[in-house]
Amino acid sequence: MASIEFKGVSKRYGDAPATVPGLDLHIRDGEFMVLVGPSGCGKSTTLRMIAGLESISGGELLIGGHRVNDLPPKDRDIAMVFQNYALYPHMSVFENMAFGLRVRNMPKLGIERRVREAAETLGLSDLLQRKPGQLSGGQCQRVALGRAIVRDPQVFLFDEPLSNLDAELRVQMRANIGRLHREFGTTSVYVTHDQVEAMTLGTRIAILNKGALMQVGTPLELYNDPQNTFVAGFMGSPPMNLMPVQNTGAGLFNELINLPHDGLSGLGAELVFGLRPEKLQHAAAVPAHWPKVRGTIELVESLGAELLVHLRGGDSKMIARLPGMQVLTPGDSLELAFDPAAVYLFDAGTSRRIRPQAQSRTSAERTR
Amino acid sequence: MSRGRRIWIACLLWLLVWPVLADGPQVLSLWHGYRGAERAAFEQLIDEYNSRQSAVQVKPLAVPFGGYADKLAAALPRGQGPDLFVFAHDRLGGWVSAGHTVAPIDKLVSKDLLTRFPANLLDAMTYDGRLYGLPFNFKSPALIINTDLVDRAPATTDELVAVARRHTERNAGRFGLAYSYTEPFFHGALMNSFGPGPFSERGELALDSEANIRSLEMLVRWVRQDRILPEEPSSTLVTSLFNQQRAAMVISGPWMLGEIAADVNYRVVPLPVNSESGRPLAPWAAVEGLFLSPWSKQPAAAVDLMGFLTSRQAAETMAVEGGQLPANVSAFEHPGVATDDTAMAFRQQLETAVPIPNLPAMTLVWKPLETGLKKVVKGAATPDAELHQLQQQIGADLARLQRSRDRGDRSVAMPVWLWLLPFALVIAAYCLWRRYHRAIAAGWRHNRTAYLYILPAMLGMTLLVFFPLAYGLLLSFTDTTVFNEHMPLWSRWVGMDNYLSILGDFHLWRGEGAERSIDFDNFYWTLLITILWTVSNVTLAVGLAMVLALALDKPIFGRGWFRLILILPWAIPNYITALVWKGMFHPQFGVINQGLQVLGFAPVAWFDSIGASFFTGLVTNVWLSIPFMMVVILGGLQSIPKELYEAARVEGAGRWFQFRTITLPLLKPVLVPAVILSVVWTFNMFNVIYLVSDGAPAGANDILITKAFRIGFEKYQYAYAAAYSIVILALLFCYALWQTRVSRSLEAAR
């Protein structure tokens, strides 16, 4: 069993405010858990605490059911892949990969076999005698991966391993890592700030902000059902449109939208309205009762297959994702519509998701 | 007449008149090395002489004492020196032998005038039967007693020893008698009381005479039986003991008086009579004399000046205002001097004093005799065996110098083939020019500014590095010594002789039977010691520096302070450090032996055995080398990415494994050049060996570079020393080549 459990784990450096105030997280055996969040959110610190490279200030960390707070890294049976590869520059690829096995006094033949197997898996068989200085970035990262695989540990740790690679290589390596996880099934913890990696690789994703856990769940859960504005605004590219709206009791309105809505009594005067850019469509193509958005086009970004249109209404702004084969000019006014069921509401003060009891009136009429 | 013509005629007239007008006073140039009160008094006399008459104007020049001898040696033989000069008398023999440095004055001075000087002082200025100048002043050691401890001056050496024994308490560091007894200058007093000293009546070297052996036996008795003298003496120690009232009597000269503390009551008395021989202890006197240059155009005027400067009045001025002991002893009747007990005591000592032999061979005696004295007083050799050995050794050196001098005496015509050399050089230059001038011109045009920028540095390098190197190389093929250095180069040519005698020197042992000992002057012995020295130093320094660097790499408390403290040894000039360590290792008063005794261990005689003496140098040099190595290794450590250690930790490597597999290999590019530098510097570390152990015992711990120094500047065999240095250069060059090749092949093999 190689599950990882954080029970109120905190990390503090000296007298400074805690980097990780208190984390409760359960990573299941065989799961690929991605820790994601903006810079300084404590994800690398958390990872290093699992590795044993940082001490734990409070709480308990269990790996495979055993408390490991005071266990040194070498006794935790984990392997780590670093952002800068951390390959030993004076040793060949073979020796780099064999290092961990040499330390554990494995017999030479055994080492040789394991290293060659791992090299085969990662396509490194021709590079075994080269030194890291003679390899490209992608090859180096593969060697770092190979070094981790060879050990056959109970947990893999990845510390932003693809950040130093170019876009094309990143795609390839993502595929490699995904394949390896499917093949070996080892519990993996992966730290990244790139949500594309998070979405594609993770079995589950844990979003962290300023050391606190914002939400943990599968990629689709986080995408479709965010529990706070941070998660809502973090997942998705371009991010969800979040704007303050006034609550009249009967509906929500601001400079861009006017939405009749039920169940708003008892909620604050100002709420946060959320809508994904792809949920905005041309008014002509949707049912007539769908609420409208009217604004001026501020900017049009063409991505080939689609357009990102920035709409402005007074001080409010929204971004819409529209099909690419149309001509829109900045300065023109535009009218779009959206499905009222796709609206998210958040409390303006706590940023938490509000789920009003009644649906908005128009869709309720529809289901009736 | 036109204006131009008038000017022409005026100039012509002036040219005619000039020689007549210019027949003003003659100018005599006079060099001296005086400072302070002496200088003021001396120049006052010169002014008086100048104002008295107008025929001669004397221009004095005060030369800083440090370079005075060299300046004379450089200027005089080329005819560029002064008309007359003041200097110590003991170099007279060397000067006369070398020639062109001093001129005899017998014919220029009246016998009457000479009666104003005591006979022994005139002897000092005489060589080979001819008088070369007039004595100006004298200095000799005498007995200085602490009147609080000793009330009566001892009349005989037996009395001296008895009084000294009463005042000696070794455990408390108190001694009855203290003087620098291993310096031959002081031991001369004993030698001269038994016989004629190091040289026989006829002027031949006779160190192993019966008389000298007896003098040495007496000293050994004083040191080892009566035990009235401190160990490892030096003039600093003697002064310090006297000032702390821990030495009842000292033997020293007027030079010490200025350093005696104000609260010590003392009296100067003549040295006692030798109870064994019945003759008084006769210390050596150093005489300062006025010498005449052979190039002077006004020798008569110069001698006249000499007469004035040694007149009674002048002598009185120098005594009263200059604080000197004048050679014209009638000055001692002056009330200002007659009432000075100290001055009168030295005057009395003069009666029995003997001038330092001015024979050229004397210069070769000082250092070896000092080494021999040190050996004998420690009991490492018996007086007669040691003196026999010294006699043979110095005799051999003398013969060698004599050979070189004979070689210089024979005037050899410049060999014909030597003319081909410049001719060949010109042809070679022309061929090279023909071949490369276009490339050179292009390079010059392109990089003109760059060449101009490096020109000053290249000039400096050429002058200070390349030229001396080339000259040294040239010199090593000759037989140049102090005696023949002014002869033309080709007359001293000996080809590879010097190298053959250095490298072919297989006489490791000397002496017979029970007295066999290693000849420490042997090249291969010295090479062995040098290699041992280098290897042990570099290993220890690198090892300890590695430990310290590893400790300081981690953010421990007070790291900044530790780094500062550990750099300090580097900041202190290593000359000072060496002297401090030497003081700490003093067997009697050094803090190390004191510390050992406090801890209950027996004190170690640091400079008596080869191993202990080696250890003193080792400790000092390691202490000096650690900062540099530590800084280099720290820099290397900090350039190793921390992530590698983290990766290794995660992979399960312990601290030692990490050190072996990550730290050491990644430090290699930084360590290898540092080690090469350290090896070269340690191989040539002159200061530590010379200042701390001085090669003790008896030159056993000399390394190649100090040996070369001694050959050049204590034995005056300049060419042999040059060859020695070239051998050292060749050894280090081969080492550097080998080291680079080894490290490169190690790199390639990886």
What does this protein look like?
- The complex is a heterodimer of chains A (368) and B (750).
- With 368 residues, chain A is α+β, with helices and mostly antiparallel strands.
- Chain A has 9 helices and 21 strands.
- In chain A, strand 20 (344-347) and strand 21 (353-354) form a beta hairpin.
- Chain A starts with a strand and ends with a helix.
- In chain B, strand 1, helix 2 and strand 2 (56-62) form a beta-alpha-beta unit.
- In chain B, helix 20 (523-553) runs parallel beside helix 24 (610-638), helix 21 crosses helix 24 (610-638) and helix 24 (610-638) packs antiparallel against helix 27 (686-693).
- Chain A binds chain B through residues 51-53, 72-74, 78-80, 82, 84, 86, 88-91, 99-100, 103-104, 147, 151, and chain B through 641, 643-644, 646-654, 657, 661-662, 665-666, 750.
What's the structural blueprint in terms of helices and strands?
The complex is a heterodimer of chains A (368) and B (750).
Chain A: E1 4-11, E2 20-27, E3 32-36, H1 43-51, E4 58-63, E5 66-67, E6 78-81, H2 93-103, H3 108-122, H4 137-150, E7 155-159, H5 167-184, E8 187-192, H6 195-201, E9 204-209, E10 212-217, H7 219-224, H8 229-234, E11 241-247, E12 251-253, E13 258-260, E14 270-275, E15 280-282, E16 292-302, E17 306-313, E18 316-323, E19 333-338, E20 344-347, E21 353-354, H9 361-367
Parallel strand pairs in A: 3-8, 3-9, 6-7, 7-8
Antiparallel strand pairs in A: 1-2, 1-4, 4-5, 9-10, 11-12, 11-14, 12-13, 14-20, 15-19, 16-17, 16-19, 17-18, 20-21
Helix pairs in contact in A: 2-3, 2-4, 3-4
Chain B: H1 3-21, E1 26-32, H2 36-52, E2 56-62, H3 65-75, E3 84-88, H4 92-98, H5 111-114, H6 119-124, E4 126-127, E5 130-131, E6 133-139, E7 142-146, H7 157-166, E8 175-178, H8 184-194, H9 210-225, H10 235-243, E9 247-252, H11 254-257, E10 266-269, E11 284-292, H12 299-309, H13 312-320, H14 335-338, H15 341-350, E12 354-355, H16 366-377, H17 383-409, H18 417-476, H19 497-503, E13 509-510, E14 517-518, H20 523-553, H21 559-571, H22 574-584, H23 591-598, H24 610-638, H25 642-651, H26 655-683, H27 686-693, H28 704-713, H29 718-749
Parallel strand pairs in B: 1-2, 1-3, 8-9, 11-12
Antiparallel strand pairs in B: 3-11, 4-5, 6-11, 7-9, 7-10, 13-14
Helix pairs in contact in B: 8-9, 16-17, 18-29, 20-24, 20-26, 21-24, 22-24, 22-27, 24-26, 24-27, 26-29, 28-29
